[in-house]
Structures are given as structure tokens and as C-alpha cells.
Amino acid sequence: MSTDVKQARWPRQIPYIIASEACERFSFYGMRNILTPFLMTALLLAVPEHLRAGEAKDVFHSFVIGVYFFPLLGGWLADRYLGKYNTILWLSIVYVIGHLFLALFETSKEGFYTGLFLIALGSGGIKPLVSAFMGDQFDQSNKALAQKAFDIFYFTINFGSFFASLLMPLTLKHFGAAVAFGIPGVLMALATLFFWLGRKRYVHIAPEPKDPHSFLKVVKTALLSKEQGKANGGLYLALVGFALALFSLSQTATLGFVAAFCLALVLVMGFGGAGAAIQLERARGVHPDIAVDGVRSVLRILILFALVTPFWSLFDQKASTWILQANEMSKPDWFEPAMMQALNPLLVMLLIPFNHMVLYPLLERCGVRITALRRMGAGIAFAGFSWIVIGSVQLAMDGGTVMSIVWQVLPYALLTFGEVLVSATGLEFAYSQAPAAMKGTITSFWQLSVTVGNLWVLLANNSIRSETVLSHVASTGLSQTAFLMFFFAGFALVAAAIFALYARSYTMLDNYRAAA
């Protein structure tokens, strides 16, 4: 270990951020985990029973989509106007007010839905900024400690999630909605207080002034600039993406609004980004080389983010597909299938210290260099392996074998190991690779990858309803459930292979600020 690493010191302000995050995550998962049961048993009782589950799912997924779209707003506000600290503080207050609305308006749809909107705005708005703000507290003198800090950060997320998953459903059952939604509100108020208490110790990086050479302006110049004797292939590609996005929006009746809107966004970003990359050199001269090179680096980062989206397709289905499977498995009478969800944060809290104290040192001694990109690629692959196991269990069940719910422990362990490799590493990777002026925005794109991952699930579930796909599934001899499980396993493994190939040519950047 180098002398510089030995002498590196932890920033004294980090505990305030960690404590705030632990309370905020309990707050968020505490209300989210009881949202659907509350909708089904209280707020939506006036809805006919055969329609109630569908409406509850619509409300829940609309809320989650909002949570993962508002990071774009929070990142933009922080990078351009308010700075990270002020954006986090003010949106945290909005977040607390949202919880208050849930507790006060448990019988009013309008009031309750307003509370959900405020929580989505607050939670989503601060989501990319807290990790980026923590990264701001490190510099070249102690950047070697940053990955450990991000792992501790991720540990606290799961610490809060674990206890929220166990306690809040029981609170709703025994004490009612006002108390059950009020407790997360109190925790969010504490999170805001802890964050505020560290205000005099934080490193505050001011937002960048309006930049004539911003990312979007460089992209616009690249797409619209003409070059003598060359076709505007990049512009035409971007226009194709825009046309496909309009077509996607026209399919709302078939795909549903959420899927159609998300797909349109992906098409604009994907085709527009590819088009800009093709013509990016045309922006030189109009914009300085550092701005053009910065845009190129961001586009390369977004390719890696795109390759991570299949991981989220698999990860988020543990709360849907895996629970549905658990309903059909043998288990004690007292055990509810959804209680398996607590296994995920528990395993995260065990795996993070195990990786750092045992696995990574062992691999380093064996000559295997543990880089961020290798971790992330391996994590995507482990998610694929978990779905091969869960698919094999489904095959046995389809064949008439009664399977114990204990069989889900192995796929949960594999998936959670993949999560630790992908998600905890990705937070630090996103921060370290982002140019200084775009750290909040880039981190918000990392959050957006979760939304895109869920989009693939919606599209896959929509596709399997078609007669053509159904006939193909039938010809394989697999049930629809097993077919989709193996499809998603293959989806992740192919993405992991492409990720590994692309990562070999990726040049790591060092965008930590200089030591004070």
C-alpha cells in the first residue's frame, strides 16, 4: 500500500451524510413497501374488486417511474442553479411535506396522491445528488477511500431497507395508515436534520455558470453543422430516432402510457447520442476541444449505463415475478412470500464487508486486478446466473414437483451479489468519470438506467401476449413463466459479454477535484 493511501484521512463530514441516508432510506422503503397493501385494503375500496389490483399497480408504478425520472430535474437544478447542498436541503423539505400529506389524507385520493407526487419529486430529485455530494467531499489526497465510502453509503441504504421491510407492514396492520405513513415522515425529518447539521463542514462546489459550450449545445452543434463533401448521417440518424419516438407515443393504447413514454425517451437519447457521436468532430472550432472531448467521454459513459440496464430488468423483478413464484411454493403457514424481500438487504450488509475484507484481497493476491468495470460486468453476469437457477426451479414446479421456498435463497444470494458488484460500484464510477460540470446530471442518468431496465420488462411482458410469441413459447415446451425467466437470464448474460468487450477499450478517467 502506498504512503499516500496510508496517510489519507476520512473527511469528518461523511458521518452526517451517512446518517442522513440511513434515515431517508428507511423513510422511502418504509412507505413504498406498504403502499400497495394500503391501496388494496383502504384507499381503493370503492373501486370494483376485479379492477382494484390493476389500479393499485398503476398508482404504484406511476409513483416509481416518477421517482426515477425526477433525478434529471434534481441534477439539472444542482448543476446549473442551486448547487448540490441547497437542492438536497430544499427537496428534502418537500419530501417531508409529502409524507405529512400521506399521514393526514389517508382517506382522500386527491390529498394522498399529492403526497405521492411530492415524495416522488423530493426522493427522485435528491437521489443522484446525495452520492455525488458525498463524492465532492473527497479529493486527490484521499480518493482511494472514496470506494469504501460509497460501499458504506450503500450499506446504510440496505440497513434502512431491511428494518423498514420487516417493521412497516406490521405497523400498518396493527396501528393503521396514519401511524404507518407518519413514522417514515419522522425518519425523513431526521434525515433532513442530520444533513443540515453538517452544513459548516461540507465542501461546497458552486454550480457552473451558464455555459455556451454545455453538453447539449455541443451535441446540437455537432448534429446541425454541415461539412463540405460529407453527408449528415448523424443528423439523419437522430431524426430517425425522433420519428420512432413519435411512433412509440402513438402506441400508448397498446403499450400503455408509461412504456410508450419511456421507449420514446430511450429512442431519442439512443439515436440522438449515436448521431452526435458520428458528427462530433464538426463541433471543434465552434466549441473548445475540452468541451468536445467532454461530450465524447459522456457519450461513452452512457453506453456503459445502457449495457447495465438489463441488470435492473432482472433485479426489480424479485419484487414481482419471484414473489409470484413464491406464492406457489411450500412454506410455513406464518410466512408471507413478500418477507423474502428482507433477505436482499440483509445479504447486502453481509456481502459488502465480506468482499472488502476477504474476497477482493484474496483475488488481488491471486493476481486478479479488481477494477470498477470488472466488478460491474461480473455483477450483470451473476444476475443472469440467478435467473438460470430460478428458471430451473420453475421447471421443476411446472413438472409437478413441490418446491420449498428455501430454494429461492440461492438465486437471492446470486442476485444480491450481482447487485453489490453493480450498484455500489456504479455510484462511485458515475461520479469519478463525470466531468465537473455534469456530476449531478451524469449520476441522474445512472438512476435513469433503472427506469430503462423496467421498460424492458414492460415490453417483454407486452410482447409475450401476442399470438406469434405465444405459439413459439408453446413449441419450446416451456411455460410462459419459465420461458421469460430463461429469456431474461440470456438477456443479462449477453449484456455482460458485450459490457466486458466494450470495457476493454474504455479509458478510465480521474475527475476528482484537486487536493486543497
UniProtKB/TrEMBL annotation:
Cellular-component GO terms for this entry: membrane
UniProtKB keywords: Membrane, Peptide transport, Protein transport, Transmembrane, Transmembrane helix, Transport
InterPro entries found in the cross-reference section: Dipep/tripep_permease (IPR005279), MFS_trans_sf (IPR036259), POT_fam (IPR000109), PTR2_symporter_CS (IPR018456)
Topology versus the membrane: Multi-pass membrane protein
One term of GO molecular function: peptide transmembrane transporter activity
Keyword Disulfide bond: no
Family that this chain belongs to: Belongs to the major facilitator superfamily. Proton-dependent oligopeptide transporter (POT/PTR) (TC 2.A.17) family.
Protein name: POT family MFS transporter
